[in-house]
Design a protein that fits this description.
Chain lengths: 592, 246, 175
């Protein structure tokens, strides 16, 4: 029991002393796990939302769509409605294809003729206002959000004006903008929204040369046997389209099709950034950890206990951050899994796979960063550990000669970088990840925007969502990378302060010293940035479906230059602060 | 600047630290003139302010008030940049803790000030070799500080201080971390420097180091309490010390 | 001094002037003020004590005498070499000087210490300069080093005296 108390005390004391390290780790891992969790659970979330909407609206198991309203179609539909496997049905009802204008936007629309009193199958849930009545239209919620239409506004459907009396949600169609099951006369459909009118009014609308089809909703005895039903009823005289609820659910997932890889890859990239940043910090504390291990060994702690002490802090913080990340993911999920607002429902907890992946990420972040210094600490003999001093004394004559040829700031920068090659590599990776994100963003923006067809002036919802999300992930990447850069510069400045004080005593100006510190960060950033662009393009090609158009070259060059400039600017501040410290102070403190 | 102008001149120098309860006057209204070519030793108990005085002379710290003149130039109001340039050209430093750069060889350490002053790497290296020869470490030029003894490290540090031919060398407890034999080596070098006319200000609490100086200043509580000339006074009484009658 | 001369003879019989040269070399600058006749006085005393015997004497020219150690002399040398006594440091006189000055108020003890300190420092300077200018391997270097280190110790003692007396002075001033 005493051992546990000891471990807890040591860990708490250490966290208190290194608050910034702890904060950085928590921030980075939270962002990474939230993104990853979102990405992995997105598909499941969209499916779950569909299922909940279906339950709330008594959604049909099958939707049959006939190409016209002829007697043959109606007869075929009625026959199927009386099939022994069918328990209940709704309709047949009309579907009219038209165009809608509202609030300056125009869009294709399918109008469903509905009964003012819905039956047992397909009861759209009214979320605002009331259901259809004579002279009043009800808009599907996703469509209404895209248009910005509220109850009380007026819409014009193919020349007729209707007041909007309600907004509703249904499970009988795919989400906006795929509300049309099939196109007119059974052909392919455009991007359309859904609107309900009373059946007579829909019919009246159709009377003016607008194409209509007939639809029927079926509820089966066995809701899952939709495929069996379809197979049993092939080869009918009339060409019917059968949409099962499973098919509609899968369609729902398409809206997040692009989002998922964005978030999953983004999550891993963020995790990578977390690892590089915290690994640099942990390496900087390696000497201190070694000394701590030596102390504990000297007072009789077993290697096992020491290992626990050294690892616990980061493991616990990582796992806490993972939990926070999962909470954030849960909060954000509805907005991302239901971007069109067409479904209702609450979010379910993370699935097993998601949990496994995020835990793996958190553990990797903790272990990768603390394992090397911990192993080293445990391996070092006690006496050596107690007197351990930081070792950057690798002499590199070629580098020293090379740097002698350069002006003072570059000389200092090069030598500073060489002291900690590991950190330089980590910084390179960090910059590479930032540029991967930026490149992906720019490449995405360079893709041609597919509109919703001639009839629609609404923006492509999926593209909008995707862009926003990619922007959010990229912003997260950039923020983390910035934090990493500042932290690494500060650490370099702190570790090198004696060396830099000596250089200043020998005649280097504060300006030269702070420029040197900036260069020390810039030098590894350059190859990282270039590599990041290539990786970003490759990743994008790998994860995108279909042909990809490259962004203009100067965009990418600009991104690289902007990142490098930002790095230089960011490092300038801590560098200046470090360079202004009193030389005498630093040197006396060192000697003391 | 003619021969009679002192190389280092200080008027009314004051340095205060801290505030409230921890307020202390490290240097309390000090006046000093060091003519060119003189070796001055400053002695005193620890905490008397002698190291602070040296730091102020070298521009490593800023005075609270007072004037400092080095090589005819007023230095107390200069910017950090200008002070750095001054150190490059006119002042050489030797520290108690040597303060060599661990990952550079002796020669690379010694050439550092020359590189900072903008000299070509070849010229800097040549000068470094000459100086290492002077301190009798030519055979250790390619060694890292970790491979050198304390005395050797301090000799490298002295060579480094001389890299840019400074007008004054400031040494802060140069033998503080050295044993008796290493101290003698350093004393020998200081004696050689004196012979070449180098102006030297040494802060020390080792009487042997003080004894090499021409002039000894005693300091206590930030003030000078004594200022004697040691040079040119033979006692002729050495024999009496060992019980041998003359 | 006598024992040292005897010990030098123990190696082999020598002339007086050889002994003197050897002594001068060993003492370095401290040997300068040595009286040239001193060595012969010492040798005469040793002869009288039966520790040394004169071979081939020539009464008119004393420096032609060759001196050799007797068996008794050998014994004495052996005994002297293994003695572990150490010369007494002579701090008592100065200490009493300070006490007397403080009690009688005839002089300021702090001033006395400062003056003595200056003197010792000058002496230290001389000794050190001599040590540095001795050729390497010279036997006198060790002696000079010893003198320097003792002077250093004495100077430290003077610092302690000065601290004590100036504290006493400050206290009495405050009173």
């Amino acid at each position: 029991m005493g051992r546990v108390v000891l471990v807890v005390r040591l860990v708490l004391a250490d966290v208190r002393r290194h608050k910034t390290h702890a904060a950085m780790l928590v921030l980075a891992v939270t962002a990474a796990t939230a993104t990853l969790a979102l990405g992995l659970s997105l598909y499941n979330a969209s499916q779950s939302l569909y299922v909940q909407t279906r339950a709330a609206t008594a959604g049909p198991d099958l939707v049959l769509l006939a190409p016209d309203t002829g007697p043959a179609s109606t007869a075929a539909l009625k026959t199927l409605a009386n099939d022994p496997d069918v328990v209940d049905h709704n309709g047949p009802y009309d579907i009219v294809y038209g165009t809608l204008t509202a609030r300056g936007y125009s869009s294709s629309v399918v109008v469903h003729g509905a009964s003012p009193t819905p039956g047992a199958v397909d009861r759209p849930l009214v979320t605002a206002g009331t259901w259809v009545r004579r002279g009043g239209a009800v808009i599907e919620r996703g469509f209404a959000t895209a248009l910005g239409v509220k109850v009380g506004d007026r819409v014009v459907v193919s020349g007729h004006t209707y007041p909007v009396v309600g907004i509703a949600v249904t499970a009988a169609t795919s989400i906006y903008p795929w509300s049309a099951g099939i196109g007119p006369l059974g052909g392919p459909s455009d991007y359309t929204g859904l609107l309900w009118l009373t059946a007579p009014e829909a019919r009246a609308l159709a009377g003016r040369d607008l194409t209509i089809t007939t639809a029927l909703d079926l509820k089966l005895r066995d809701p899952d046997a939709t495929e069996a039903f379809r197979l049993a009823h092939r080869g009918l005289s009339v060409r019917l389209n059968l949409h099962s609820w499973q098919f509609i659910a899968v369609q729902d997932g398409h809206i997040v099709q692009n989002t998922q890889p964005m978030l999953v890859v983004g999550g891993w990239l963020l995790g990578f950034l977390a690892v590089t940043g915290v690994a640099a910090l942990a390496a900087g504390r390696a000497t201190e950890q070694t000394r701590r291990a030596g102390l504990l060994k000297a007072v009789g702690a077993t290697p096992g206990l020491i290992g626990v002490v050294l690892l616990t802090e980061y493991l616990v913080l990582s796992l806490l951050a993972e939990a926070a990340g999962l909470v954030v993911a849960r909060l954000v999920e509805p907005a991302i899994a239901n971007p069109t607002d067409s479904r209702i429902g609450h979010v379910v907890g993370p699935a097993g796979l998601t949990l496994a992946a995020t835990t793996a990420l958190a553990l990797a972040a903790a272990l990768l960063t603390t394992l090397p210094p911990t192993v080293r600490a445990l391996r070092t003999a006690t006496v050596a550990a107690l007197t351990s001093t930081a070792q950057y004394s690798r002499h590199r004559p070629w580098l020293t000669s090379l740097s002698s040829l350069l002006p003072t700031p570059l000389l200092l920068g090069l030598r500073l970088t060489a002291r900690r090659p590991g950190r330089a590599v980590l910084h390179s990776c960090s910059t590479a990840v930032t540029l991967t994100g930026l490149t992906a963003l720019l490449t995405f923006y360079a893709q041609p925007v597919r509109g919703y067809g001639i009839a629609s002036s609404l923006p492509n919802g999926r593209d909008v969502v995707d862009r926003r999300l990619l922007l959010a992930v990229t912003v997260l990447l950039v923020v983390l990378a910035l934090v990493n850069t500042i932290a690494m510069t500060w650490m370099t400045a702190m570790e090198a302060r004696t060396s830099l004080a000596i250089t200043r005593a020998l005649g280097a100006t504060p300006g030269q010293v702070s420029a040197g510190l900036s260069f020390a960060q810039l030098l590894p950033a350059v190859p990282g940035a270039v590599a990041g662009v290539y990786v970003g393009v490759v990743l994008f090609a790998f994860t995108s479906r279909g042909p990809m158009s490259m962004p203009p070259r100067w965009w990418l060059v600009a991104a690289v230059l902007a990142t490098l400039l930002a790095t230089a600017a960011l490092t300038a501040l801590p560098a200046r602060l470090a360079a202004r410290r009193s030389v005498a102070h630093t040197l006396s403190a060192e000697a003391a | 600047m003619n021969e009679s102008t002192p190389l280092v001149r200080v008027r009314g120098l004051v340095k205060e630290h801290g505030d409230g309860e921890s307020w202390v006057r490290a240097v309390d209204d000090v006046d000093l003139e060091v003519p060119q070519g003189q070796t001055v030793a400053v002695m005193g108990p620890s905490g008397c302010g002698k190291s602070t005085l040296l730091h102020l002379l070298g521009g490593l710290e800023r005075p609270t008030s007072g004037e400092i003149w080095v090589a005819g130039r007023r230095t107390d109001g200069l910017s950090e940049r200008a002070l750095a340039r001054l150190r490059r050209r006119s002042i050489g430093f030797v520290f108690q803790a040597f303060h060599l750069v661990d990952e550079l060889t002796a020669a690379e350490n010694v050439e550092l000030p020359a590189l900072l002053a903008g000299r070509s790497p070849r010229a800097a290296r040549r000068r470094a070799d000459v100086l290492l020869e002077q301190v009798e470490l030519a055979d250790r030029a390619r060694h890292l500080p970790s491979e050198l003894s304390g005395g050797q490290r301090q000799r490298v540090a002295i060579a480094r201080a001389l890299a840019n031919e400074p007008q004054v060398v400031l040494a802060d407890e140069p033998t503080g971390n050295l044993d008796s034999a290493a101290t003698l080596d350093v004393l020998r070098i200081f004696a050689d420097l004196r012979a070449t006319g180098q102006t030297l200000v040494v802060v020390t609490h080792d009487e042997r180091v003080a004894a090499t100086a021409d002039r000894l200043i005693s300091m206590r509580d930030g003030m000078f309490v004594d200022d004697t000339q040691l040079a040119g006074t033979g006692t002729g009484r050495l024999g009496g010390l060992v019980g041998l009658e003359g | 001094m006598q024992d040292a001369v005897l010990a030098m003879l123990a190696k082999e019989p020598s002339h007086g002037y050889e002994l003197r040269a050897r002594l001068r070399r060993s003492l370095g600058p401290f040997g300068e003020p040595m009286n040239p006749g001193q060595i012969y006085v010492t040798l005469a005393r040793l002869e009288k004590a039966g520790l040394v015997v004169c071979e081939r004497s020539d009464a008119e020219k004393p420096d032609r005498k060759v001196y050799a150690v007797t068996p008794a002399g050998q014994e004495r040398v052996a005994a002297w070499l293994t003695e572990v006594g150490w010369p007494k440091p002579d701090l008592v006189e100065f200490h009493l000087k300070l006490v007397a000055a403080a009690a009688s108020r005839l002089a300021d003890p702090v001033e006395l210490v400062a003056a003595q300190r200056r003197e010792l420092l000058r002496t230290l300077r001389e000794a050190q300069q001599s040590a540095l200018s001795e050729p390497p391997g010279s036997p006198a270097t060790a002696l000079l080093e010893g003198v320097v280190l003792r002077l250093q110790a004495d100077l430290r003692w003077l610092d302690a005296c000065e601290r004590g007396y100036s504290r006493r002075r400050d206290e009495s001033e405050d009173a």
